[in-house]
Amino acid sequence: MTSQRTRDRLINRLREQGINSEDVLSVMRETPRHIFIDEALAHRAYEDTALPIGYNQTISQPFIVARMTETLLAAGPLKKVLEVGTGSGYQTSILAPLVGELYSVERIRPLQEKARNRLRMLGIKNVNLKHTDGGMGWAAKAPFDGILAACAPEDVPEELMQQLAVGGRLIIPVGGSDNQELKLVVRESENEFSTQVLECVKFVPLLSGTIR
Ligand code: SAH
Fold first, then answer.
1. Strand partners, 51
2. What are the catalytic residues?
3. Which end of the chain is more exposed for a tag (fewer CB within 10 A), N or C?
4. The CATH number of the domain where 172 resides is what?
């Protein structure tokens, strides 16, 4: 169920669905998604679907992880990236090998600790994790060349936009529980932002506060 053949089938499917970046596909082929999921569900790890990870949260669907990563990287390499919502650490582990330095924030401490162990197990070293409410970003580390949010606010938070470097790209699901859009916001100049709607999605909400 977790064999290379099963994983390759998922990669072929992503390719058929329009994922073009060989870099993204290759990292996803090498990354064992089953270690990000509780054992009872591990046999479903290579299905193209979101799965529960506890605390009412989910590991993101592989197609969405691929699409968001590919879109974030589409204008060239990124040195410094912020991820909002580490969750299981799966998206983190796909993004980390493809960027310079990755900063990732999570509001639920036990999820963050599990993610930390998985990243260590995979030998991923360019990730800085922080237990905090990431709706405000991570001002001390800004500006970022890229920001990826794995949870949906009602509107694009101004703080995240302001933490983008000029030329920086923010990819974020926006909206309520049954009508979310995945948006790409690019900081074209100091005071100018462009926004593009990519597709309809279904993410868990961005919530405020932290859980210990
Ligand atoms: N890409 C992750 C998806 C995790 S689900 C994965 O593949 O596992 C989204 C995560 O965002 C959840 O873990 C949730 O706790 C977190 N989250 C929600 N609101 C947040 C906030 N304000 N700050 C930080 N993390 C938040």
1. 59
2. 60
3. C
4. 3.40.50.150
- 169: its two tokens: 């790209």
> Is the minimum distance from the CB of 64 to ligand 1 under 6 angstroms?
no
Distance CA 41, CA 103 (A): 28
Q: Would the CB of 187 count as within 6 Å of ligand 1?
A: no
Tens digits of residue pLDDT in 156-201: 999 999 999 999 999 999 999 889 999 999 999 999 999 999 999 9
- Range(s) of the domain holding residue 161: 62-201
Domain count for the chain, please give it.
1
Closest C-alpha residue for ligand 1 atom 2: 87
- Which token pair is 66? 């691929």
Nearest 5 degrees, angle CA 40-CA 108-CA 47?
Answer: 35
The three-state secondary structure class of 48 is: coil
The finding on whether 180 has its CB within 6 A of some atom of ligand 1 is no
Across the chain, mean pLDDT equals: 96
